[in-house]
Amino acid sequence: MKPTKDLSERTLGWLLLSPVAVLLAIVVLYPVGQLIYSSFFTIRLTEPWLGTPFVGLENYARAWDDERFWGALQNTVLFIVVTVPGSLAVGLGLALLANMPFKRKWPVRLALLLPWALPLVFAGLIFRWFFDYKLGFFNDILMKIGIAPQAWLTDPVLAKIAICFTIIWKSSSFMALVLLAGLQAIPKSLYEAAEVDGASKWLQFKEITIPMLMPAIFVALIFRTITAIQTFDIPYAMTGGGPGDSTETLAMYIHKNTLDFLDFGYGSALATIMFVVSIIATSGYLRYTQRSAGRD
Amino acid sequence: MNIKKLVLAATLASIAAGTAWSQTTLRIFTGGQQRPDVMRKIADEYEKRTPGVKIAVEVGGATSDAQQQYLNTVLTSKDSVLDVVLIDVIRPAQWAAAGWAEPLDAYLGADRQKVLSQYMKAYVDANVVNGKVISLPYFADAQFLYYRKDLLEKYKRSAPKTWDDLMETAQIIMQGEKNQNLRGFETAGAPIEGTVCTYLVPLWGEGSDITKNGKLNLDTPEARAPFQLMGRLKQSGVLSPNVGEIATDRIRINMQAGNLIFAQTWGYVWNRSQNDADSQVKGKIGVAVLPSSKTGKGATCIGGWQLAVSAFSKNKAEAAKFVRYLSSPEVSKMQAIAASHLPVFPSVYKDKEVLAANPWFEFAGPIVETAKARPVTPRYQEVSDTIRSNMNAYLSGTKTTDVALGDMQKRLSPVFK
To answer: What is the ipTM metric for this complex?
Structure first.
């Protein structure tokens, strides 16, 4: 290959990519840059006479001493640690179920799609009623089997369980869709060969399904982890962060500081921290996918 | 002939365009709970009287918090889309500080004193910030004690004057009725704005307040009283174990279903409980001033909605004229009859037609006159958030009085420094 041709191809490549690059710069790089920049200033719209002085790392120092921030971070981590593996396990189960040779595939697929298609805040509102103390579905069942009704959404431990349950219900279907696509890409001949060799179903699952599904699992995990870090809608609709602040997530606390308290400087610092957490959490996955891409 | 028609059409079109050009459209923002249908009727009336002005009513947000969140995004971006905004009584100080409201003094001119003197004093205090008229009142509101007249009569009890009285009466009736669904008392406990009043009303009833001479005043025995009171009510079963998830409208629903003896809530409940088809308590509801501790000084939380002209409006003069119309005794009367909105003018409470539609205004009026304002500060949202989330945590049993009060002091001391 001649280097000249290579160069022109590279130029053409850049040219073709440039609209996307410009678009990304406008909608991603600029806002992120603006966010980080704002985090070094005092910007309190409730007290405009303070002006917008540069305060260096003061907003970050404030976060360090802010118990509510640490509480929100802790809740966010808890929701990630519980709901990411939780929805992977449930999603995998649903995907395996949907991959079975049903006569009619569409009702199964539709059932899979529905929770995913539902807006997050609707899911939160629906489950708030399910978990309601007086009128709720769950307490109705408890009472029918002779157990005292529980204050699901006003007890800090039960509220966390209720929220995790709802998040897993809501996000499993997305996991299942991604994993189902992965499952269907596995050649049937592999299972047939294993069958001939006398491998048990469990062995087939462990030695064929799981390894072949790994790329799909990682894609699903990356997406799920990012959305888990940003958890907002479901706890917002179900408990509003209560009781007290015991189910408040980082995203909710950022929303509270910016849109309720109009403290954009501090809110920006918190959002920058969340951005860094997202990058760290996903870089592990990204390194894996890069490595596997290199292997191919 | 064709040319003749064409000329005629062109002339007509240009006249139409000309009138459209000289027409001003004012856009007013209101919440879904503040009866936008009645606002529309009033706007129709105004359009009839004021040629050249069209009113567009924009409706958003079912709660005060949801409305303000939307308004925060519109106003921080200095958007001129809204001309007049209906704001909660807790907001004028915030709006004045943020520079979102056009002060109305210049538009009132020589009439300023005369206009202000017509309103109930509490509403003048709420709308005038640092000597400037930030907004004008649209309708009044306050929290009342709603009680089951029929049940109190059956057990020969009178409307309670003190909290102890309320607890005792509730217990007697609950024991007597043996109805599993019947609760003694309900007030807002979810992390919402109304829960601020759940803390403040008993605090005021002790003769104390959040601040004293502008300084935080929570290291007093009185500041513990609201927690202790709610704790006792919950422990005795008078207050439901799920009070931590009770928001404003749930109280109305429970009262209307006949499941409550007492409730602390806003003025709209009376109308709904007497007129809704599914109400189980028609003719069985009494309204009184909220109880206090033994000092016998009942206090209540002021509510109601104010009209502000957006500082970013392009039609401020026309908007101010419209606001003056909306904040007039005439419109107050229309609202009282059509929506049972409590008037902001003492004179309207005495109007025969108004009283015929709302007999309970006779005793509601004096209660509204004594209503107190929640703390006035540009950082009210932080104050509100702190009180409501700590009260909610206490009611849910996750914080003790000491912890809740300590956390409130920690977060509020930078606001009231």
So the answer is: 0.78
